[in-house]
């Protein structure tokens, strides 16, 4: 297992190098990063030249790439200007946004995975039953609904629930405009109350879409596994139905679902723009939209590399889970 892990880590290194080259190449096509700066007030040619020299824009592309990649490895991701906050460190800002998104996405993805696995496995075991038809219908309904529709409906329902609670004198529980800027405070009970109120709507909006994906993959994989020779052999040996399903069929049927989970989680880290926008979360989605709009190459470069690292890391974890579930993978 150790040798398998080392091989997977070594494979990740060239992937990161390729990702850095592609990231740098794409961000150089964004245009002039000082265009807005030059229009704020009249600038002399000497001032413009000095600013281009300060940001290294007067050097060749290979020199700029080596300088940026070296700084990235050592932790110097550059600085940028954010209105209202002044000059901010790119790594610090991306770390803040990534933490906000991770807290939201990981909770939603794990719950969606558990719900989807349970529904998909049960649907496969009880194929063509009423439960299977109901689960299939719910999954296709969620597939057909855009995420923003689900998010907006949940937000409207949260506002109505708050109005109902307020009429009862219980206060407004559901948060529809992002977590409080100063964070949560109070005793354990109050913290649970605040966290659930802030997370319930965005998490539910992601779960509603994601569970459908996981349930369909789990059902299809489970059906293939239930018809495998080793499962029929286990039944012929007299093993109980529950043990055959859980120990023999479900374990091997998890591998395709884990693959989808790892890829989907990485995509959602940078792609939860709609959820963050509807519910007022300032995470990775909002950060990349603002950075591209304002042509901030250092922020975009840092964002893309941070996202690439997260995606590669979760795929590495998925590879290790494969090896645990199926020893043939690490011995192959």
Walkthrough of the structure:
The chain has one domain: MetI-like fold. The chain contains 14 helices and 2 strands; from the N terminus they run ααααββαααααααααα. Helix 1 runs antiparallel to helix 13. The longest helix has 39 residues. It is globular and about 85 Å long. The mean pLDDT is 82.
Brief digest:
The protein has helices at residues 2-27, 35-40, 45-54, 61-74, 90-125, 130-144, 147-167, 188-226, 229-236, 241-271, 273-279, 284-293, 297-325, 327-331; strands spanning 79-82, 86-89.
SSE blueprint and pairings:
Elements (H helix, E strand, L loop, with lengths): L1 H26 L7 H6 L4 H10 L6 H14 L4 E4 L3 E4 H36 L4 H15 L2 H21 L20 H39 L2 H8 L4 H31 L1 H7 L4 H10 L3 H29 L1 H5 L1
Antiparallel strand pairs: 1-2
Helix pairs in contact: 1-13, 5-6, 5-8, 5-10, 5-13, 6-8, 7-8, 7-11, 8-10, 9-10, 10-13, 11-12, 12-13
How far the N terminus sits from the C terminus, by CA atoms, comes to 11 Å
Rg, rounded, reads 24 Å
CATH superfamily: MetI-like
Q: What is the molecular shape?
A: globular
Q: Classify the fold: give the CATH topology.
A: MetI-like fold
| Sequence stretches where pLDDT stays below 50 over 5 or more residues | none
Features:
single chain; 332 residues; mainly alpha; MetI-like fold; two-stranded antiparallel ribbon; 2 strands
């Amino acid at each position: 297992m150790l040798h398998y892990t080392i091989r997977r880590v070594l494979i990740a290194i060239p992937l990161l190098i390729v990702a850095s080259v592609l990231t740098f190449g794409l961000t150089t096509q964004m245009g002039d990063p000082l265009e807005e700066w030059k229009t704020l007030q009249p600038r002399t040619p000497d001032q413009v030249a000095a600013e281009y020299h300060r940001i290294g824009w007067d050097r060749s592309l290979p020199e700029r790439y080596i300088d940026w990649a070296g700084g990235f490895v050592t932790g110097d991701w550059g600085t940028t200007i954010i209105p209202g906050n002044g000059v901010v460190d790119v790594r610090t800002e991306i770390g803040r946004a990534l933490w906000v998104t991770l807290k939201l996405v990981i909770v939603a993805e794990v719950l969606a995975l558990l719900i989807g696995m349970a529904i998909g496995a049960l649907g496969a075991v009880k194929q063509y039953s009423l439960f299977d038809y109901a689960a299939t219908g719910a999954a296709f309904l969620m597939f057909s609904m855009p995420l923003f529709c689900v998010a907006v409906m949940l937000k409207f329902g949260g506002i109505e629930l708050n109005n109902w609670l307020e009429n009862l004198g219980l206060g407004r529980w559901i948060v529809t405009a992002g977590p409080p800027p100063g964070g949560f405070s109070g005793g354990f009970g109050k913290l649970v109350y605040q966290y659930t109120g802030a997370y319930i709507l965005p998490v539910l909006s992601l779960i509603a879409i994601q569970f459908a994906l996981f349930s369909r993959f789990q059902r299809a994989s489970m059906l293939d596994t239930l018809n495998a020779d080793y499962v029929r052999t286990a039944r012929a040996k007299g093993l109980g139905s529950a043990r055959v399903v859980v120990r023999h069929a479900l374990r091997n049927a998890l591998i395709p679902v884990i693959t989808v989970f790892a890829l989907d989680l990485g995509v959602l880290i940078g792609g939860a723009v709609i959820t963050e926008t509807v519910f007022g979360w300032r995470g990775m989605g909002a950060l990349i939209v603002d950075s591209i709009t304002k042509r901030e190459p250092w922020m975009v470069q840092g964002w893309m590399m941070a996202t690439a690292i997260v995606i590669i890391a979760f795929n590495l974890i998925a590879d290790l889970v494969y090896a645990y579930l199926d020893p043939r993978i690490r011995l192959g």
